[in-house]
Amino acid sequence: MAELVILGFGSNLGNRFRNIQSSLRMIALNKNMNLLKVSAVYETEPWGVSGQNSFYNCAAVFLCRMNPLGLLKTVKNTERSNGRKKRGKWQPREIDIDILFYGNIVFSGGELKIPHPFLHCRNFVLKPLVDIIPEYIHPAYKKSVLNLYKGSKDNCKVKEIRAFSG
Any idea what the CATH number is for the domain that residue 59 is in? Predict the structure, then answer.
């Protein structure tokens, strides 16, 4: 059975748009993933750090026929295939792919936490989500993505760069 899955994509090294585009295509070509919708691409300040290039961010909705751990493995393989190198937390990255939502589950185990534990307080995640799933209810907070965005206290600027055409 397929689950609705929302992934977040970010890059602040190299050709940021191409890094996201390549990663998104790779996941969309996976036989267990059906791409439904992609947000616009936004340029955003790095969150929690200074002295880094700005990020490009977007979000995408898929139908997924993998369990959460299988999806995590696919995401990690896609990051590696698109040039991601191991660095410390909140360091620059060629590509970063986060599992934001997996159906309506709330899960925490090892390196996987669903929904993403900080998505509700980061405008660079919330704004792309508002583009594609504004009425989606966060399974832990029981609020729509739109209401989380409207209530956000995040001051980081989020500027639309372009619509995503794949």
Answer: 3.30.70.560
- Rounded to 5 degrees, φ, ψ at 72 are -60, -45
CB 111 within 8 A of CB 117: no
Q: How far apart are CA 87 and CA 54, in angstroms?
A: 17
Kindly report the number of other CB atoms within 10 A of residue 15's CB atom: 12
The rounded distance, in Å, linking the Cα atoms of 147 and 55 is 24
Q: What is the pTM of this model?
A: 0.92
In the chain, beta strands by DSSP E: 3-11, 33-38, 41-44, 55-64, 96-102, 107-109, 112-114, 158-162
Domain count, the chain: 1
pLDDT tens-place string over residues 68-88: 999 999 999 998 888 767 766
Average model confidence (pLDDT) for the chain? 90
Long-range own/partner contacts, residues 149-155 (CB < 8 A, 24 or more apart): 149/123, 152/120, 152/121, 152/122, 152/123, 152/126, 153/121, 154/47, 154/121, 154/122, 154/123, 154/126
- Indicate whether 47 pLDDT > 70: no
Enclosing domain of residue 73 = 3-162
